[in-house]
Amino acid sequence: MSDRRQRIHDLVLALLAQQKDLELLAGDGTGLPSGDPGNWIERNRRVVQRYQALVRSAVTLDALVDQEVNGGFQTPDSSL
């Protein structure tokens, strides 16, 4: 695994560890109280979006750290 991928993986795990209500995907709609397949699909869609947001956050954090380590942020010339 590349160094960057490993860093992102570690960041995702750290972000997951901070989550209080971590839901898992439902395997099928039979376990839901309503039994409605539409509700099952919508719930799984929301769960996937939450995981995607965590991964995007990890990628952003990694990029920010990488930028800071490799030259820092460029600030406008304040000598004016």
Summarize this, please?
Helix content is 60%, strand content 0%.
Question: Please, what is the average pLDDT?
Answer: 85
- The number of distinct structural domains comes to 1
The portion of residues forming beta strands comes to under 5%
The main sheet comes to: none
Label the overall shape: elongated
The residue ranges in which pLDDT falls below 50 over 5 or more consecutive positions are none
The counted number of beta strands is 0
Helix/sheet category: mainly alpha
Straight-line distance between termini: 47 Å
- What is the percent of helical residues? 55-70%
The tally of helices reads 2
Order of helices and strands: HH
Cα radius of gyration in angstroms: 19 Å
